[in-house]
Predict the structure.
Amino acid sequence: MRTTTSLVGLVCFGVLGLGLGGLGSLGCKGGEGEPCQGTSDCQGDLVCCFDIGDPTQDLGECVPASECRPCGNGELDDGEDGEGGEECDDGNRALGDGCSDGCEVESGWACTGSPSVCVELCGDGVVSAPDGEECDDGNTDNGDGCSDDCMIEVEIECGNGDVETGEECDDGNTDSGDGCSADCELEVLPGCGNGVLEAGEQCDGPLAFDASCELLGYLTGTVGCTASCTMDYSDCINHPDQVAWYRLDGAEGLVTDSGLWSNDCVEAGTLVRDATGVVGRAALFDGTSAYVNCGAGSNLDGMAALTVEAWVYLSSYGGESMFVSRAASGDATGLVYALGVAGGAAWGANENHAFFATYDLASAVFSADPLPTDEWHHVAGVYEAGEVMIYVDGLVTGTATSLATTHLPSPAGAQLYLGNLYDGGGASTWDTYLDGGLDDVRIWRVARDTGGVCIDAGGTLDGSGICQLTLP
């Protein structure tokens, strides 16, 4: 369209801009290329023509009728005068109906007639390759081999060995249990390395266990998981006040000390290793012959303060069932400390209660209630400045005065036992064998406070300073 404008046209255009009505009403008619609001505003045989593709245009332009082809009037201009023409005209300038706002046929459509009637090509049952169709099944449904845009759909075949869209895997068969299921989804197979904590494993991958060196009693460091799915504590740094620590995780061989002093132990009797515990694995004692002998060791007596703690499982009541003991004999001349359950009528009202004693069993402190059987419980005994206390599941349940007022004794030949009491004869002549289980035994040369005992048991203190512990 031309863009020349006469001086008269500019003046008249200014009148239009003032909103004073059409040019023709003022006797001001535009020449070719001048603005107009209608054909009456144009001179002679000129017509007022509006730009194709701009339905919001306020002003048109005066041009010869042969040059104006108004798109959207419903009359198809085929360009017989050699000036081009419309491909379609459906009486509007809307997009998406097959005939564009410039009266051109939109992709994927076919338009015929005047006014033009447009239909989508895909779904008409005729394959139109020039329009990009690969197929046309007479509908626009997906999942029937020909998609809604007339493209050939590839059928997904699980078991053909090719990983196709929608498949997580394809191992060439439709068998489940081999890592790739019958519907080609990845399977998690049992065994170490699958990221799932299973029976016999302490861990499996970095996210399959919730533990830190601090929560496990170390000073600091990071817990790892070995390739054989056992806990890796090699990066953990020991607390200097923890003199012995028996996790009882090993399946056989030495009962190793994870503390600073390497007071390793040997098993005796019928001891079951690698049993289900609270913190990893545990050891089960038969109540008649099984115990763990940690020998004389080092830094295990003569302390000014002491904490002995363990997760315990009592299968039955019997004699003085020992959890942890250090002694050369069971009397005031040879006992250093003992943590266990009082058995037999001789204990009176304290029968079947958990107890902790230093120097002599006669100065023991007892839990407020009997220790339940067939359940795991955390029991701790604490000594400091002539006082002994006993905790059950992170709560103080009893206090008493110890016969030892400064330092614990260091009798010659004292032995550390788990699950029994040494009284000078290699094994106790008392009925002190434990019928039950032990896990995570710790000995400290400091008096752990309520917060420390609670944390060692895996609990947390609430706002009132009370240990909140979830029992297994």
Observations:
- Residues 188-237 form one domain.
